[in-house]
Design a protein that fits this description.
241 residues; Rossmann fold; six-stranded mixed β-sheet; four-stranded antiparallel β-sheet; 8 helices; 10 strands; 35% helix
């Protein structure tokens, strides 16, 4: 297993946000973390990326505890947050070079890896353009390219299609799925949009801080006696997709 979370709990003051969350991610697979807004997805991502301090439980990556060996574990994780984190006034390539320097890559490594990722996203011809000149879908592609520069084994994406139109959402989702199939990248994709999830995906449904289900979409439909994932989601959370 790439990542294992055991008995995760988190509170803001007296308010529980996550309660006894445990799961394990399969290497090289697309995992969907599905939940309504306010389910606790972003809090869980905050713990996975160490933006929030662990209060209960532990997270192991390739056997390394995020609490005890954070640097070793985080070197293998790439992250795309819901809020855009690019410097809009820098060029696409400058954003990638800066991020590469933070990971200790040489300028040559940074340039080679950056150009490779941009080419895969069909953005190499925009490398010298300021990020602010890109549309929302292209900015998201740059963020994913940046997250892959240090060649992580696990990519975490928190509501990565927020603010994008349907065509851009679909294109981004398809590209990330190709990374799983072609590069054997392990992906955890958090979303509240049922249309971004496929029935063969491993699906974790989070609601009010509780992990309500964790299995393939097909199996969850069987277990709940529902015709599709939209009905499964509604039956477990009461939230219409």
């Amino acid at each position: 297993m790439t990542l294992t979370a055991s008995d995760i709990g988190f509170r803001y003051g007296d308010k529980p946000v996550l309660t006894n969350i445990s799961f394990a991610l399969d290497s090289g697979r697309f995992h969907a973390l599905l939940g309504p807004n306010g389910a606790g997805k972003s809090t869980l991502f905050g713990l996975l990326t160490r933006l929030l301090a662990m209060q209960q439980g532990d997270i192991l990556f390739a056997g390394q505890s995020l609490k005890k060996h954070p640097a070793e574990a985080m070197r293998q994780i790439g992250v795309v947050f819901q809020q855009n984190a690019l410097d809009l006034d820098l060029s696409v390539r400058q954003n990638l070079m800066y991020h590469s320097a933070l990971h200790g890559l040489s300028r040559k490594q940074a340039r080679l890896r950056g150009d490779r990722e941009l080419e895969r996203f069909d953005l190499l011809n925009r490398a010298d353009d300021a990020v602010r000149t890109l549309n929302g879908g292209h900015r998201r592609r740059v963020e994913i390219a940046r997250a892959l520069l240090h060649q992580p084994a696990l990519l975490l994406l928190d509501e990565p299609t927020a603010g994008l139109d349907i065509a851009s959402r679909n294109a981004l989702n398809e590209h990330v799925r190709r990374l799983c199939s072609e590069d054997k990248l392990t992906v955890l994709w958090a979303t509240h949009l049922i249309e971004e999830v496929q029935e063969h995906d491993r699906v974790m449904i989070l609601h009010l801080g509780h992990l309500m289900a964790d299995d393939s979409g097909h199996e969850l439909c069987k277990q709940t006696g529902t015709a599709n994932l939209a009905e499964t989601f509604e039956s477990l959370t009461g939230a219409c997709s």
